[in-house]
């Protein structure tokens, strides 16, 4: 007799042990804690025909946004496809969604996950994979609305309700609904104080509003909740470093880089992105970071995976440019050019944003500031198309401002810094940029 998971979703298995392992793994996955992959791999070793185990594993690989895990994604998709005859409707639809992602049709995959939620609004796997997919594609409104669409089917008595609220909080923040986002993030943490995604959502609100002192206090005050044994800890350390950087506390930022951002740089690609983004911000400020660029570039080079996801490629390029590795930079740009000629969602992302951004960064390091400005001025209007958050994509806007300042484009620099001041008047970093523009 087929069973249901703890949220009432049908599963094709009649093995209680497999379902129990699935619940343990999915709970860890929702909170980005521990080793959910290890748990589900053991369950699949014991029960190779456990369909939901294969699609959960596929979902984990999708959210990694990393070419390096593509073989694991392929294994999971093909295993689930081989079990089509015993799978139920929901499992078959999960398999089809994961297959679309594997084939490079990221947008199609996200629509299929959305369709699952229409019929199974308590399917937190479809919700989480879709939510992270929306983040990877920079689909801000869907970060909010994918969750909002199923919220009426939920209440506080249901398992994982706090995680659902945490995802909604981030979507509200990315659509500039800051007061609602902060309230929803804090509410999520009332259900689960150790939800690092909800902690992260509130940190984003404080960053976007320039509430630097509050941001530092928020992350420091909840450090025991988010800083250990979870995949988002490095990213939350990055947010703390951002707050410190706004106060021009360079030595503490470098210490955070050395002690936190760099220590796990051989792990997730998200960690490498955070490391590159922080060092690039320091480069824009004229800070000599010594051998850190070379060390980071070596990790990116060893990892490979170019041409899979444009957002990753641009951050790898930052490391190569920072390290002065022109050969690696040109090789990467060539790989991006080849990717842009292909099909699938990443080809569009690379054509529209990735390649122009890469060429702008390359122009910046060779001190062709006029070209940097020319490439980035309009690109910033569509930069969301290659994914990431507002806070992450701000590195391109900062590069634009710095290029305008160094090019002596006083009127443009004043306009750009005025834009920033209007959004975050409390930001010391913005005030410093505006002062430099006025003094040109």
TrEMBL record:
Q: What is the protein name given in its UniProt record?
A: Tetratricopeptide repeat protein 38
Q: In which organism is this protein found? A: Achromobacter arsenitoxydans SY8
- Asked if the keyword Kinase belongs to this entry, the reply reads no
Q: Which domain of life is it from?
A: Bacteria
Entry keywords, A to Z:
Repeat, TPR repeat
Do you know which CDD domains this protein is assigned to?
A: StaR_like
Q: Please report which protein family the annotation says this sequence is part of.
A: Belongs to the TTC38 family.
Q: Which PANTHER family match?
A: TETRATRICOPEPTIDE REPEAT PROTEIN 38
Phosphoprotein as UniProt keyword: no
């Amino acid at each position: 007799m087929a069973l249901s998971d703890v949220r009432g979703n049908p599963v094709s298995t009649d093995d209680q042990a497999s379902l129990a392992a699935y619940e343990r793994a999915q709970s860890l996955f929702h909170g980005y804690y521990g080793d959910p992959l290890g748990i589900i791999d053991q369950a699949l070793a014991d029960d190779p025909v456990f369909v939901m185990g294969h699609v959960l594993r596929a979902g984990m690989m999708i959210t990694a946004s990393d070419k390096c895990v593509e073989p694991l994604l392929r294994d999971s998709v093909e295993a689930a496809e081989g079990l089509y005859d015993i799978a139920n409707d929901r499992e078959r639809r999960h398999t089809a969604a994961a297959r679309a992602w594997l084939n490079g049709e990221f947008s199609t995959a996200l629509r299929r996950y959305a369709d699952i939620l229409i019929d199974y609004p308590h399917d937190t796997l479809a919700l989480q994979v879709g939510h992270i997919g929306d983040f990877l594609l920079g689909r801000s409104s869907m970060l909010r609305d994918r969750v909002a669409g199923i919220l009426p089917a939920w209440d506080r008595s249901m398992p994982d309700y706090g995680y659902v609220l945490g995802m909604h909080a981030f979507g509200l923040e990315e659509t500039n609904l800051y007061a609602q986002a902060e309230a929803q993030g804090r509410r999520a943490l009332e259900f689960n104080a150790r939800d690092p995604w909800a902690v992260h959502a509130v940190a984003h609100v404080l960053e976007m509003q320039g509430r630097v002192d509050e941001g530092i206090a928020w992350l420091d005050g909840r450090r025991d909740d988010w800083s250990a044994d979870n995949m988002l800890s490095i990213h939350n350390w990055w947010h703390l470093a951002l707050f410190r950087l706004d106060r021009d506390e360079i030595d503490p930022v470098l210490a955070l880089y050395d002690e936190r951002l760099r220590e796990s740089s051989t792990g997730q690609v998200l960690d490498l992105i955070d490391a590159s983004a922080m060092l690039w911000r320091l480069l824009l400020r004229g800070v000599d970071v010594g051998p850190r660029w070379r060390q980071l570039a070596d990790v990116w080079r060893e990892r490979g995976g170019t041409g899979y996801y444009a957002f990753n490629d641009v951050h790898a390029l930052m490391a190569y440019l920072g390290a002065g590795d022109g050969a690696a930079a040109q090789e990467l740009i060539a790989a991006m050019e080849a990717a842009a000629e292909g099909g699938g969602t990443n080809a569009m992302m690379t054509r529209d944003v990735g390649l122009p951004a890469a060429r702008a960064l390359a122009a910046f390091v060779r001190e062709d500031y006029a070209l940097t400005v020319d490439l980035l001025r309009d690109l910033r209007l569509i930069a969301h198309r290659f994914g990431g958050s507002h806070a992450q994509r701000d590195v391109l806007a900062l590069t634009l401002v710095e290029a305008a300042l160094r090019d002596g484009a006083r009127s443009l620099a004043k306009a750009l810094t005025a834009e920033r001041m209007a959004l975050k008047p409390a930001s010391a970093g913005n005030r410093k940029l505006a002062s430099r523009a006025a003094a040109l």
